[in-house]
Design brief:
Length: 146
């Protein structure tokens, strides 16, 4: 069951400058940052609020590490902006299988590693009314999905 907005993914050209915008404008601080080479991103997670399922909602600021990555290609075509939304679930495997059964393309056979050791998969934007949609199960130690 999908129980929260886990994060909104925002593509940017310069992560440090974008982090500074969110800090200076809204007061949001970096909760976590990492490089995910498999996804081709350098990212910063800004925690916005805790959620009623024991998890949290974040902004995920994304700078591509290479031009041929998903975010690199998207930025070249669209410029900066909202790249994807992510729903949180305690069981990404079951939710992804259920959604696949409904005829929506799930991009990975098995969930891959996302922010903070989470397990993630994606739904094809062309099957989701133009919205690239991610499903996330937080790592057991992370503040989510208990
Ligand atoms: N939102 C909406 N539509 C998108 C999109 C996005 N983020 N990315 C691509 N599309 C659309 C394109 O506009 C294009 O549409 P048209 O054919 O009408 O022009 C179509 O999808 C195909 O796009 P493409 O540029 O040819 O790109 P690819 O097919 O090579 O890749 C996708 C698209 C969704 C398969 C790829 O972006 C992907 O695998 N995404 C999942 C991984 C990812 O996004 N990782 C980064 C975030 C990591 C994280 O969140 O942790
Ligand atoms: Co994401």
């Amino acid at each position: 069951m999908l129980t929260r907005i886990d994060h909104i993914g925002i593509a940017c050209f310069d992560l440090d400058r974008t982090v500074e915008f969110y800090r200076a404008t809204y007061g949001f601080e970096v909760f976590h940052s990492e490089i995910n080479e498999e996804q081709g991103v350098r990212e910063a997670m800004l925690k916005i609020n805790e959620t009623s399922d024991g998890g949290a909602s974040y902004l995920q600021l994304l700078e591509p590490t290479r031009e041929d990555s998903a975010v690199g290609k998207w930025l070249a075509k669209n410029g900066e902006g909202v790249h994807h939304i992510a729903f949180g679930t305690a069981d990404v495997d079951t939710d992804a299988a259920d959604i696949r059964d409904k005829g929506v393309r799930v991009l990975y056979d098995e969930p891959r590693t996302g922010s903070m050791g989470s397990r993630i998969t994606f739904l094809h934007p062309k099957d989701c009314h133009g919205v690239l949609t991610e499903l996330v199960t937080a790592a057991p130690s992370a503040p989510a999905d208990h």
